[in-house]
Amino acid sequence: MKLKQLEGILGSIQQFSNPKLDLEQYPTGPHIASRLLYTAENTFGDVNGKVVADFGCGCGTLGIASALLGAENVIGIDVDLQALEIASQNAENLEVDLDLIYCNVKNLSLRGYLIDTVVMNPPFGTRNKGSDMEFLSVAIKVASQSVYSLHKTSTREHIKRVALRDFHAKSAEVLCEVRFDVPQLYQFHKKKTVDLAVDLWRFVP
Asked: Are the C-beta atoms of 147 and 205 separated by less than 8 Å?
């Protein structure tokens, strides 16, 4: 599947109707989602034929992209039942299989699953300080091959230091810096959209 084709399909996915501020729910746009998964597969071979977990899957964008690129099994994990219902509907509409689990990533137990690759757009840790690092810690423990994750560019040095020193990742590499388009979802947002500088990381556990 070509990149533009993947981006087009992801653009049809239903997103949050009532995003929850405490969970820092911002949809992963089709432009970033398609490039994250396309890079994971075409540069590193981390998707096709692999077991992929989407942490904080929300409406299922990254998980669905993984399935479209040939993942053997895709597991979506989220603490929001409403988001999981939307993810289930999106997967059904696109005729892909997602195993959806209602669970807080911090309390995750994946008995019976061997996860090759974790993909995620975790909370940025703006509202709940440290939540981004909690996601990353669990992802590096769970994945056997790689973790792809989005984090604010302003936290780059901190992310790298903690991933290598505290989470014992073998490598932590910024693949590219992207502009994350944050739409006006919440009352405290004064502008219609805000461009946020975000790094696409690849970690090797």
From this structure: yes
